[in-house]
């Protein structure tokens, strides 16, 4: 049962981590390198030619089994993770693609196009302030400035790529030619509750929400917690707390908007020191780019009002701004025909989570197949997709590839 092999490979890959207590596989880390080695072996066993591209993306290529010039279909997802992440977010899309091609080969199905399975290594954006570098390089939208961003240890992305064995100067050549690329396809867990609520195993993504990410740095005045009178304080953490609630309020105030402070730090914090500084992360998403821009404007205004009233300085810097990415109607229809042919109800839904597929916006047609995940849970160790649902996704992916082969 090939879905069983997908699950056993996901379990094996899940053990490749830089944290013995949970899944931590940040981009260009030791765990990422070990994951590349493991997945390369699966790709080669499936008859794919493998290479590591200059951004750290593992590429497994299957040439067209028919003579003559052929276009290429890209199928992929990511193998980097968040901290304490789940085993399906990303790897499912890579492992299931390898398996689908292996199943087609076993059944003697010759595809009239080439296929590249892409295991991107920088989707989560946890180590560096920017992300999606692998998929943006493939899409031809890579921003060289991201090479100069630094991680918490001060290591630049360029240095990390060189240490990983990559040559950043070759990234530009990775851009796929839209004229010879059929499209990009990604299978991913939904990371939300909709499919489960509707008792559906699978759904097709209509669009991926746009996202802005950044940092709010608040500068107050440190002091002795026992001697500085409350009325004289410029407490950065107290200001941060009010700002976090303001961000939440803006998020709640606009339909389909999500606004989150996921990380809060008090540099040099101590039990007996009035916080002199605080650093917050900011994540704002919406299917509407206009709503997202307007929410950022409102958040900036609220921060300025809070900072002014509390006598602290606050700086908002946005390091990542990805517009909403509609999926390609033709690919969605082809996927939907395969879905229905496999006995599933056609169902379409937007993606609140970001994905590598959004990098291809406006360049290469993209489409995503969502798989139900228990409780909509993701970015947690208890993230779960059933073998039955994975088997359903595998059958649909194989049928989609075969139908594409019949009329590319
Ligand atoms: O943040 C996201 O939406 C994705 O999981 N990286
Ligand atoms: Mn993901
Ligand atoms: Mn994720």
Description:
With 408 residues, the protein is α+β, with helices and mostly antiparallel strands. The chain folds into 2 domains: 290 residues, Aminopeptidase, CATH 3.40.630; 113 residues, Alpha-Beta Plaits, CATH 3.30.70.360. 33% of the residues lie in helices and 23% in strands. Strands 2, 3, 4, 6, 7, 8, 16, 17 and 18 form a 9-stranded mixed β-sheet that branches. Strand 2 and strand 3 form a beta hairpin. The longest helix has 22 residues. The radius of gyration is 22 Å and the shape is elongated. The model has no long low-confidence stretch (mean pLDDT 96). The structure holds (2S)-amino(hydroxy)ethanoic acid and manganese (II) ion (MN) (2 copies). The site of (2S)-amino(hydroxy)ethanoic acid has 4 residues, from loops.
Compact description:
This protein has 408 residues and is of the alpha+beta class. The protein has 2 domains: 2-208 and 324-406, Zn peptidases (Aminopeptidase, 3-Layer(aba) Sandwich), CATH 3.40.630.10; 210-322, Alpha-Beta Plaits (2-Layer Sandwich), CATH 3.30.70.360. The chain has 10 helices and 18 strands.
Q: Give a count of the beta strands, DSSP E runs of length 2 or more.
A: 18
Helix fraction bin: 25-40%
Question: What oligomeric state is this?
Answer: single chain
How many alpha or pi helices? 10
């Amino acid at each position: 049962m090939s879905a069983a092999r997908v699950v056993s490979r996901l379990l094996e890959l899940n053990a490749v981590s830089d944290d013995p207590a949970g899944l931590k596989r940040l981009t260009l880390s030791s765990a990422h390198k070990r994951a590349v080695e493991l997945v390369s072996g699966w790709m080669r066993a499936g008859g794919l030619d493998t290479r590591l591209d200059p951004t750290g993306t593992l590429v497994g290529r299957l040439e067209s089994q028919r003579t003559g010039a052929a276009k290429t279909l890209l199928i992929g997802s990511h193998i980097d993770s968040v901290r304490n992440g789940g085993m399906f977010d990303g790897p499912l899309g890579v492992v299931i693609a390898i398996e689908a091609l292996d199943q087609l080969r076993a059944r003697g199905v010759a595809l009239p196009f080439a296929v590249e399975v892409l295991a991107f290594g920088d989707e989560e954006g946890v180590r560096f302030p920017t992300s999606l570098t692998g998929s943006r390089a493939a899409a031809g939208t890579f921003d060289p400035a991201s090479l100069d961003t630094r991680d918490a240890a001060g290591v630049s992305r360029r240095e990390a790529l060189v240490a990983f064995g990559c040559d950043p100067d070759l990234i530009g050549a990775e851009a796929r030619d839209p004229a010879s690329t059929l499209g990009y396809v990604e299978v991913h867990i939904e990371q939300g509750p909709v499919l489960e609520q509707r008792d559906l195993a699978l759904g097709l993504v209509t669009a991926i929400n746009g996202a802005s990410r950044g940092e709010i740095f608040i500068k107050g005045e440190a002091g002795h917690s026992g001697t500085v009178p409350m009325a004289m304080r410029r407490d950065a953490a107290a200001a941060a707390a009010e700002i976090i609630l303001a961000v939440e309020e803006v998020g709640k105030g606009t339909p389909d908007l999500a606004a989150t402070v996921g990380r809060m730090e008090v540099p040099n914090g101590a039990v007996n020191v009035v916080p002199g500084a605080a650093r917050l992360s900011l994540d704002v998403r919406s299917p509407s780019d206009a709503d997202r821009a307007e929410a950022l404007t409102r958040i900036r205004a609220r921060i300025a009002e809070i900072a002014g009233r509390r006598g602290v300085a606050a700086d908002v810097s946005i390091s990542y701004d990805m517009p909403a990415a509609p999926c390609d109607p033709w690919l969605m229809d082809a996927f939907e025909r395969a879905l229905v042919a496999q006995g599933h109800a056609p169902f379409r839904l937007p993606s609140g989570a970001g994905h590598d597929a959004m990098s291809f916006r406006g360049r290469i047609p993209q489409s995503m197949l969502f798989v139900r995940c228990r409780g909509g849970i993701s970015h947690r160790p208890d993230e779960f997709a059933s073998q039955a649902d994975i088997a359903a996704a595998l059958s649909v992916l194989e049928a989609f590839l075969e139908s594409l082969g019949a009329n590319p």
